C-alpha cells in the first residue's frame, strides 16, 4: 500500500500541510497544478508511467523486429568495387611441348599489374518456409506485446484506484478529526470552567487535555499519511513530485456497491489469459517454422560487373574494361543435419505444452481469485454497514453523554469512555470503507471487468 511510503523530513508538519492538498516543496523547478478525476489520473498514468512507457517501447521494438523479418523476403542488392595492384604477377609453368622441348617446363607470367572491378549482385528468396512462417506470425507478435501493455495498464489501474480512493477517504478522516478536536476543545473549556467553579477536579481538566493532545497528534499522523499517499500516487502516475495534485472525484456508497456479484464470468475476459492464448499461437508458429526446415529452399541470384586489366593505373583507359554477368537459381535440399530440426520441433512442442499447462493453471487461479474476491467483497460490504451504524450510534452516545456532563449529571469517566468509543468506531468505519473499496477493485480485477 503506497500510503506507507516513508518520508523522514525534519519539517514534517509544514510538509504534511502542503501535501494534504497534493502539494510538495519545489526542487528549483516551476511546479504544475493538476486537478484530476480518477479517469484523468488513469489517462495521465497511461502516458507517463515508466511501466506503461516501457511496455509501449516493447511494442515498438517488436514492430522493428517485424520489419527485419519482412526484409528477408525482399530483394537483397549488394554493390562491390575493388582495386588490385599485383606487385608480383603470379608465375605459371607451361609444358615444354608447346615450344618443342618435351619433358621440360618454362615459366610464364599471365596477367597485368592492375586488375580493377565493380559490380552489383541481386539475391531474391523465392521460397523459404521459415521466412514465410515468420511473415505470417508478424501480426500475432504485435498482438502479444499489445496485450502485455494492456496487462501492465490493468495492474496500474488496480493499484492507482486503491490509492486514489484511499486519499479521498483520508479527506473525510481529516474532517472528522477536526470536528473531534473542536468538540474536545469545547469540552476542555467546559471542564476548566467547572473546575474554576468547584464542580470538577483538576484531574478532569488534565484528562481533557490528554484527549486533546491525542487528537492533535492523530491529526499530525494522518497528515503525514496523506502526504505519503500523494507522493506515492505521483510516483505511480509518473508525475514530478514537486507538482501539485488535487483529486476531484467523490466517493459514495452507490459507487462501492456498483459491482454485481455473480458466477457468469469468462476466462477470456482476463487479459492475462488472453496473453497466454496469444502465446500459444506463437508456439504453434514456432512448430510450423521448424517443420518447414525440411522443405527445400529456392533462391535466385543475379550479378553484373566489369573488370579492368592494365599495366598502368588508369581507371578511364579505353578498351580496358570487360563486362561479365550471370543469373543463377539455387535449390537447397536438406538431407541430414544430425537431428537438429527434429530436436527444435520437439522443443517447440514442449513449450506449447508448457503454455497450455499455464492456461489450465490460470483457469484454476481465476476461479480461486473470483471466489475469494466474492467472499471478501460480501463480507466487506456487510462489515461496512455494521460499522456505519455503529459509528452513528457512537456519535449519539457521545452527544448524550456530553449533554449530561455539561449539565453536571455525568462524570468525566463517562465522557472519556464515550469519546474513546466514538474514535474507535470512526476508525473502524474508515477501515471498513477502505476494505470495501479494495475488495471491489479486486473483484472487478478478478473477473476482468476493471
Account of the 3D structure:
The longest helix is centred in the C-terminal third of the chain and has 67 residues, at 340-406. The radius of gyration is 40 Å and the shape is elongated. The strands form three sheets. The chain has a four-stranded antiparallel β-sheet with strand order 2-5-7-8. Strands 1-6 form a two-stranded parallel ribbon. A two-stranded antiparallel ribbon has the order 3-4. With 450 residues, it is of the alpha+beta class. It folds into three domains: 1-70 and 151-249, no CATH class; 73-127 and 303-333; 252-295 and 336-450, Outer membrane efflux proteins (OEP). The protein is 60% helix and 15% strand.
Number of strands: 8
Largest sheet: 4 strands, antiparallel
Mean pLDDT: 86
Low-pLDDT runs: 1-27
Number of separate helices: 10
Oligomer: single chain
Summary?
This protein has 450 residues and is α+β, with helices and mostly antiparallel strands. The protein is built from 10 helices and 8 strands.
Amino acid at each position: 500500500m503506497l500510503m506507507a511510503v516513508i518520508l523522514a523530513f525534519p519539517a514534517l508538519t509544514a510538509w504534511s500541510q502542503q501535501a494534504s492538498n497534493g502539494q510538495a516543496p519545489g526542487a528549483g523547478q516551476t511546479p504544475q497544478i493538476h486537478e484530476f478525476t480518477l479517469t484523468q489520473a488513469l489517462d495521465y498514468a497511461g502516458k507517463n508511467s515508466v511501466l506503461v512507457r516501457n511496455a509501449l517501447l516493447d511494442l515498438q521494438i517488436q514492430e522493428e523486429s517485424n520489419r527485419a523479418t519482412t526484409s528477408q523476403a525482399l530483394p537483397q542488392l549488394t554493390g562491390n568495387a575493388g582495386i588490385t595492384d599485383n606487385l608480383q604477377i603470379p608465375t605459371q609453368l607451361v609444358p615444354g611441348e608447346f615450344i618443342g622441348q618435351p619433358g621440360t617446363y618454362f615459366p610464364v607470367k599471365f596477367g597485368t599489374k592492375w586488375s580493377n572491378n565493380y559490380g552489383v549482385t541481386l539475391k531474391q528468396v523465392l521460397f523459404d518456409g521459415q521466412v514465410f512462417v515468420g511473415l505470417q506470425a508478424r501480426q500475432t507478435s504485435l498482438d502479444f506485446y499489445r496485450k502485455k501493455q494492456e496487462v501492465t495498464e490493468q495492474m496500474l489501474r488496480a493499484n492507482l484506484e486503491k490509492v486514489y480512493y484511499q486519499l479521498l477517504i483520508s479527506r473525510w478522516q481529516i474532517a472528522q478529526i477536526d470536528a473531534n478536536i473542536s468538540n474536545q476543545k469545547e469540552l476542555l473549556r467546559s471542564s476548566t470552567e467547572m473546575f474554576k467553579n468547584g464542580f470538577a477536579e483538576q484531574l478532569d481538566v488534565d484528562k481533557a487535555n490528554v484527549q486533546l493532545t491525542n487528537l492533535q497528534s492523530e491529526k499530525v499522523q494522518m497528515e503525514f499519511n496523506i502526504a505519503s499517499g500523494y507522493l506515492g500516487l505521483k510516483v505511480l502516475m509518473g508525475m514530478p513530485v514537486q507538482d501539485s495534485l488535487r483529486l476531484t472525484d467523490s466517493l459514495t456508497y452507490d459507487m462501492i456497491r456498483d459491482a454485481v456479484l455473480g458466477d457468469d464470468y469468462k476466462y477470456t475476459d482476463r487479459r492475462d489469459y488472453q496473453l497466454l492464448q496469444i502465446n500459444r499461437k506463437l508456439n504453434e508458429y514456432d512448430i510450423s517454422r521448424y517443420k518447414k526446415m525440411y522443405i527445400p529452399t529456392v533462391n535466385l541470384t543475379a550479378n553484373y560487373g566489369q573488370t579492368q586489366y592494365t599495366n598502368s593505373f588508369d581507371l578511364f583507359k579505353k578498351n580496358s574494361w570487360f563486362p561479365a554477368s550471370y543469373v543463377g537459381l539455387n535449390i537447397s535440399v536438406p538431407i541430414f543435419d544430425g537431428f537438429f530440426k527434429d530436436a527444435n520441433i520437439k522443443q517447440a512442442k514442449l513449450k506449447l505444452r508448457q503454455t497450455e499447462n499455464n492456461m489450465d493453471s490460470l483457469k484454476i487461479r481465476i476461479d480461486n481469485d473470483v471466489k475469494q474476491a466474492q467472499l471478501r467483497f460480501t463480507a466487506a460490504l456487510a462489515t461496512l454497514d455494521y460499522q456505519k451504524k455503529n459509528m452513528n450510534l457512537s456519535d449519539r452516545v457521545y452527544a448524550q453523554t456530553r449533554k449530561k456532563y455539561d449539565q453536571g449529571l455525568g462524570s468525566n469517566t463517562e465522557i472519556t469512555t464515550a469519546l474513546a468509543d466514538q474514535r474507535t468506531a470512526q476508525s473502524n468505519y474508515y477501515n471498513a470503507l477502505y476494505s470495501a473499496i479494495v475488495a471491489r477493485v479486486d473483484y472487478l480485477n478478478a473477473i476482468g471487468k476493471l
